Structures are given as structure tokens and as C-alpha cells.
């Protein structure tokens, strides 16, 4: 695992350098980023594809026996037969990247038999690199990190999706939590792992590549990750889409599950999952 985590970190930083060629803090990306849509409210840029291609080469060239699951690569069903699988999102938070918000990240998870064993979330705009190895803890830029010690759910600091907040999905929680809106779910999970926030959750569909790496960061920092029904996350499934995701500092998790027990799921606003380049119009 020591060698694999070094490979992941090197690849994430290299991909981040590619992405930063197009990023303009506080400003919309230029036409050179070639922004397009691959589905409703689901943008794609040249930076996504270039970063994905680089990650694919760096990770699979060094570990050709591993499987591959990425948001921007044609899904190959042979990954289902692999013991270990790279689960990648070259830019988690593309919408934020496009408008110049530093709320996006390169997300790389390594799965073994359906469970994450190593993770890297790298935000090139903030120069933060979060790493985790199963059983060895989580770190930020080489320093150990831990989740918060908070035990009271009401008043907890909570990271919420920017788009979900705009739609009004979080209106019912504003009196209970100290809510901060944030783009990338991978980055949100990393910040919970780092103890900057107590909780984060979503009741709208997400894919494994969105949260795989961030989930290990949280659990290795002392936190907890489940679905709304309390079930543990299982990875490298045939269909990588999940209906909900809850992250907490660990102590708050039973209370968070109880609070959301009767809260309805949000609708899937993206439509069918698209992971194939040839489907992009």
C-alpha cells in the first residue's frame, strides 16, 4: 500500500497541474476549456478529459492488473472481475471549476473486494492533498487529521451542496445546522475528515467516483459513512449509482440517521448515468 499511495498522490498532483492550466480563480474559464454538457446540469470540460486521460495512463501503466472506474471513461465490465479497482473522478466539482470557485478536487480511490483501502483527494486550487490508507489514518499535506469531537447534533457545522441549496432542498435544515455551501462532494468529505465541519450529507443520487476516496478519508479520521438507511457503502458495483450518502464525525452518526429517517429522498435530476465519451454531444 505504501507504493500505491505514492502512485496515487503523484498522479493526483499531475492531474491537478493539468486542470490548473484552465482554471481562473474568481472568473469563468475561457473558451479554451471547451465547456459542454453531457447531460442535464452535468457539464464537461477539456480539463476533465485531459486529467482523466493522464490519470488512466499513470495509474494503469503502473498497475495494469487493476480495474478502472471513472466518470469520464467508457465503463469496462471487466472491472467486476478485478480484485483491486481504481475509482476516479478527474474533477469532482466541475461546475465550481468552471466559474472559478476553488471547490473542486481530483479524487482517486483504490478498492479491494468492494472496500476502499487507499484514497487521495487533491484540491490543486488550495494546494491541499488529503491521503488515507486503511488502518493507517488520514492526513492533510503530511499531517494527521481527525474528525471533530462534537456530540450534539443541533447546531452542528454542516457542509451542503451548492446546487441542492439553490433548489431549496436544505431549507428545512437551516434552523438546525450551521450550514456552509460547498461544491465537490469529495472535498466536502475531506473537510469533514479534517475536522473543519461536523457533518455532510446528500439525499440525491451520487456515483461511487464522487465519494469513494472521501469516504475512506472520513472513516480513517474517526468518522462514519453510511447511506440513509444506515447500510455501509459497497464499491465496484455493476451500477455505481447510490441514492444517499451521510458523513459525520462518528459520534453524531446515530443522531443524524434518526433525524433523516423520515426525510424523503431527492429526485435524480441528472437522468441516466453517462460514463462514455462517445455519448457526449
Structure description:
- The protein is α+β, with helices and mostly antiparallel strands.
- It folds into two domains: 2-145, Fructose-1,6-Bisphosphatase, Chain A, domain 1; 157-260, D-Maltodextrin-Binding Protein, domain 2.
- It has helices spanning 2-20, 46-62, 94-99, 162-167, 185-193, 208-220, 253-260; strands spanning 36-37, 43-44, 67-70, 84-92, 105-112, 115-123, 128-133, 137-140, 143-145, 157-161, 178-182, 199-202, 206-207, 224-226, 241-242, 245-248.
- It has a seven-stranded mixed beta sheet, with helices on both faces.
- The longest helix is centred in the N-terminal third of the chain and has 19 residues, at 2-20.
- The termini are far apart.
Helix percent band: 25-40%
| CATH class assignment of the largest domain | Alpha Beta
Q: How many beta strands in the DSSP annotation?
A: 16
**CA distance, first residue to last residue:** 39 Å
Shape: globular
Structural category: alpha+beta
Backbone CA Rg: 17 Å
What percentage of amino acids are in beta strands?
Answer: 25-35%
What would you say about this model in short?
This protein is α+β, with helices and mostly antiparallel strands and 281 residues long. The protein has helices at 2-20, 46-62, 94-99, 162-167, 185-193, 208-220, 253-260, and strands at 36-37, 43-44, 67-70, 84-92, 105-112, 115-123, 128-133, 137-140, 143-145, 157-161, 178-182, 199-202, 206-207, 224-226, 241-242, 245-248.
Amino acid at each position: 500500500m505504501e507504493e500505491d499511495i505514492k502512485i496515487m498522490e503523484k498522479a493526483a498532483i499531475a492531474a491537478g497541474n493539468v486542470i490548473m492550466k484552465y482554471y481562473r480563480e474568481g472568473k469563468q474559464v475561457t473558451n479554451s476549456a471547451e465547456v459542454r454538457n453531457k447531460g442535464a446540469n452535468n457539464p464537461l470540460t477539456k480539463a476533465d478529459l485531459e486529467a482523466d486521460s493522464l490519470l488512466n495512463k499513470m495509474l494503469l501503466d503502473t498497475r495494469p492488473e487493476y480495474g478502472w472506474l471513472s466518470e469520464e471513461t467508457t465503463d469496462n465490465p471487466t472491472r467486476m472481475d478485478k480484485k483491486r479497482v481504481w475509482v476516479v473522478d478527474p474533477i469532482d466539482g466541475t461546475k465550481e471549476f468552471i466559474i472559478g470557485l476553488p471547490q473542486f478536487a481530483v479524487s482517486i480511490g483504490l478498492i479491494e473486494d468492494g472496500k476502499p483501502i487507499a484514497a487521495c483527494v487533491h484540491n490543486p486550487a488550495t494546494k491541499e492533498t488529503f491521503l488515507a490508507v486503511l488502518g493507517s489514518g488520514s492526513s492533510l499535506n503530511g499531517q494527521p487529521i481527525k474528525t471533530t469531537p462534537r456530540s450534539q447534533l443541533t447546531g452542528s457545522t454542516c457542509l451542503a451542496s451548492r446546487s441542492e441549496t439553490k433548489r431549496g432542498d436544505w431549507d428545512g435544515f437551516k434552523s438546525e445546522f450551521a450550514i456552509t455551501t460547498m461544491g465537490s462532494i469529495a472535498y466536502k468529505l475531506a473537510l469533514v475528515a479534517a475536522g473543519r465541519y461536523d457533518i455532510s450529507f446528500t439525499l440525491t443520487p451520487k456515483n461511487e467516483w464522487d465519494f469513494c476516496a472521501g469516504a475512506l478519508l472520513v472513516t480513517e479520521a474517526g468518522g462514519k459513512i453510511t447511506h440513509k438507511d444506515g447500510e455501509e457503502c459497497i464499491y465496484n458495483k455493476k451500477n455505481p449509482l447510490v441514492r444517499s450518502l451521510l458523513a459525520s464525525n462518528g459520534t453524531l452518526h446515530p443522531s443524524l440517521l434518526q433525524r433523516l429517517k423520515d426525510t424523503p429522498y431527492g429526485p435524480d435530476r441528472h437522468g441516466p448515468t453517462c460514463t462514455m465519451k462517445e455519448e457526449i454531444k
